[in-house]
Amino acid sequence: MAIQHSRIVLLFFLYATFTIFCYVSVISEVKTKPTKLITKLIHRNSIHSPFHNPHHGIEDKAKFIFESSLARFANHNYKTYLIPGTHMWFIFLVRFYIGNPTIPQLAIMDTASSLLWVQCSARRSPIPLLDPIKSSTYANIVCKSKFCRHFPDNSCIKKHCTYNISYVNAPTSLGNAATEQLLFESDGNIVVVSQVIFGCSTVEKTYIDNGINGVVGLGPENISMARQLANKFSYCIGDFYDPNYNYNRLILGDEARLEGDATSLEMSEVHYYLNLRGISIGDNKLDIDKNVFKRNLTDQSKLTGVIIDSGSIATWLINEAYYKFRNEVKRILSDSILEDMDECRWCLCYKGEMSEDLKGFPEVVYHFSEEADLEVGFDGIFYEATTSTFCMAVYPSSHLPDKHFWDITVIGIMAQQNHNIAYDLQEKKLYFESIDCEVYEG
């Protein structure tokens, strides 16, 4: 099975290399940052992903939803980066090309990481890697550069800036701070972005055994791709469950779609914070004290407040909100039969089929400051656990692996599906727009 998986990954990269070779022959390098960059997001279970397994059934997908949401918060150092890919528990991938000559890349999209980094040359690799010596567009960042201090755990070696990102139970990325040329497929064209700040990881083993070659960091810090491209980005997430769905998109730069309800966006070194005022299920606004969602900036021993995250599938609610949410769901589904799941004794699960038993289930609305509402249908609240069972993908934060996260609320990616989510870092605004992502096609 390992040999077969390596062959699949290698074929994927050979195809990508051939595709970009056909494009590169007709382009010239662009020195300015592009104003329009729309590229596909690849769900890890999509048929368009090299990790797609056609033999995975409902139970496998349910396990992925549950365990990936837990693994995301396995890092005991809550002030640093969340884990983007422990045990393959990533969600969306971005394909791009780097260097000259170009090398195809497949990296994790992550709004809780601010550094774009890729694995550079290694002695053994099933996929082609960037070799800084052979790339005519590669340049190391010197220690005196203003950008060096923004790299995590930066230091100096022979006047060159280096960095180190450590994850718990996940690979380390350690190497040189540098700039390089990136190429993206965008609306059938090739967009060239020059002098992109990134990390060139020289650790022998990171993600490449699994075919992933790094992380596209879209976090708030100055070195992130979002900051480098006009301080704006958006992503559109459609049908989360359909492996054939091909319309998920990432938009970087001035063309990011800043439409819909807008709410204030607060930023730390790592996370994007929102001001959640309340939650409604249908016409019933839950009796939750809005103060439970506030950030506590004086207590540095734990993470508090509300973050929006691209790397957690499920939504996590602080206990005071979760149990009122859970009780209202149980009241609405009082005619349904509760089901215990061995894998998750504290999960709320029911016998039945989502398509039938959740017909007429009211929308869940998250109310944010400036009267911005995120409206979520039942497919953003529940998932199929077996052919005859469905479970709620809203969990209590007190069941996260580390107590430092027990007071956090996280709006996960399932709740964001069927929306365009736009980040304006300059104006500190976040936009929710209910949309069909197919509008970006063509």
TrEMBL record:
Q: Does the keyword Disulfide bond apply?
A: no
Q: Which UniProt keywords apply?
A: Aspartyl protease, Glycoprotein, Hydrolase, Membrane, Protease, Transmembrane, Transmembrane helix
Q: InterPro entries in the record, alphabetically?
A: Pepsin-like_plant, PEPTIDASE_A1, Peptidase_aspartic_dom_sf, Plant_Aspart_Prot_A1, TAXi_C, TAXi_N
Q: Which residues form the Peptidase A1 domain?
A: 92-433
Q: What name does this protein carry? A: Peptidase A1 domain-containing protein
Q: Mind listing the GO molecular function terms for this protein?
A: aspartic-type endopeptidase activity
Q: Name one GO biological process term.
A: proteolysis
Q: Where is the signal peptide?
A: none
Transmembrane regions: 7-26
One of its Pfam families is TAXi_C
**GO cellular component term of the entry, any:** extracellular region
